[in-house]
Amino acid sequence: MTHAARAILPPIAAARHPGGSTGPMLWSTFWQEFNLETVPHERCYIPGDGRPIVDRHWAHFAATLPRSAQVIDLACGAGIVGSTLLRCRSDLHVTGVDWADVPIARVANLEIHPWVCMEQLPFDDGCFDAAVSLYGIEYGDIAKTAGELARVLKAGARFSFLVHHQESEILREGGARRRAVREALSGKVKAAFLSGRLAAVDLQRQRLKAQFPADPSVALIADYLRRNIMRTRAERQALWQKLAADFDPELSLLLHLERSAKSPAGMGVWLASLLSGVTRTSVSLLRRASGEPIAWIVEGVR
Prior knowledge:
The protein is of the alpha/beta class.
């Protein structure tokens, strides 16, 4: 190993995270599905022209780091930031941590530890030269995370965090998706399906398509209910329960996304907690070519 590490926390420790056991399991499911469906697997979805802009940000940050720097990536997911940094600087050593059961990247100098909380890092004091996070650090308890960063970072270590902005396209798309799915699984649609009347389901189907014309799941859910309308009431009840259970993880993750995103006022409160563990910080906006925010840039020095 390229850094001094304590014994890695066992999977059961994830249940002691402030978010409870549900959070790690939800994110584990997400990363398992994401890993199967996305090529290459480490790419993180950023809409529009945001991806190359984010990559340039990490290339610039990589250039500022000392030779053979040890970098910790908080809430690393499948290792997108580490992979990006190493494409720019192969001499770096990146250690990623995530509270979920994330896929292990097969990249030289990139080491990923699943089931590890940002608020309880299993590393020795002062063993990292830099810290990064892409859409991750804001999901945790920032006061506790700041304390751990102050402990594991060397004095003068640099950090760069890209944090969800409340007005970004990611948030807009996520919010629209959550509203569409919630409405497709609402009491009105459930009542129409359980009534066993095709006309009632079709009425809801038309309403949903008119309200959410761009969301494919609305049509899929409505068509699924239509195909099963002739089943017995007990069968329809069981099918509805399964349908709601299948979509519950996605709705929960989208809610986590909305709660983690920072408005200008929310960023001020969040920064107050972060400042307890660092000596200097600055905040700016990473923007698309159109001027729309991609993320908050939070940078500074331990």
